[in-house]
């Protein structure tokens, strides 16, 4: 990973995005999305992860996060490693997963091409953390996270997308506990 894309200041908020290898649309099933939500909750409760905004799309995740616990790079490394193994298991065991063989083949193919893995890769390697060091940048990324499902054509209003913190910012209650940015 380039030096340019490291978590340098643990006291800052960061925008991160990460995607499934080959942009495979894995997160179309509730069971798979729940693995991510449960893992984020665990990181909040046990590792000191602070989630300020999130959006789970079909092939990728957007987060605005901070920490006053473990180093951010360690939290994301553990999160991606754990969810990778849990999601592989969930795909393998899902009785109605018609794309099972293809998805596992694509992930094994990606893992075989990457010396950092043991023949299997779920997530793309990079996170490209962007430090949110100005109010303008923070608001820009918050809007980007929340309008992603609108731009994709899933909903007409950000707060109508269930797998996003947009409903928290609209005065409702989302699926994760988020710290609202004032």
UniProtKB/TrEMBL annotation:
It comes from Rufibacter quisquiliarum. It comes from the Bacteria. GO terms for biological process: DNA transposition. SMART domains: Y1_Tnp. One of its GO terms (molecular function) is transposase activity. The lineage of its organism: Bacteria, Pseudomonadati, Bacteroidota, Cytophagia, Cytophagales. This is REP element-mobilizing transposase RayT. Gene3D superfamilies: Transposase IS200-like. Pfam families: Y1_Tnp (PF01797). Residues 9-148 form the Transposase IS200-like domain.
């Amino acid at each position: 990973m380039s030096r340019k894309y490291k978590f340098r200041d643990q006291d800052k908020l960061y925008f991160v995005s990460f995607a499934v290898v080959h942009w495979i649309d894995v997160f179309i099933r509730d069971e798979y999305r729940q693995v991510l939500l449960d893992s984020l909750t665990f990181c909040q409760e046990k590792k000191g992860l602070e989630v300020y905004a999130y959006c789970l799309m079909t092939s990728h995740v957007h987060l605005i996060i901070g920490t006053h616990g473990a180093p951010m790079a360690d939290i994301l490394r553990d999160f991606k490693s754990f969810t990778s193994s849990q999601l592989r298991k969930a795909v393998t065991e899902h009785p109605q997963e018609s794309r099972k063989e293809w998805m596992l083949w694509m992930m094994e193919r990606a893992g075989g091409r990457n010396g950092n893995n043991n023949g299997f890769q779920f997530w793309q390697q990079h996170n490209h953390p962007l430090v949110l060091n100005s109010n303008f940048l923070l608001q820009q990324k918050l809007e980007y996270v929340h309008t992603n499902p609108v731009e994709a054509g899933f909903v007409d209003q950000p707060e109508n997308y269930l797998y996003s913190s947009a409903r928290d910012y609209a005065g409702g209650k989302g699926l994760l506990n988020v710290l609202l940015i004032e």
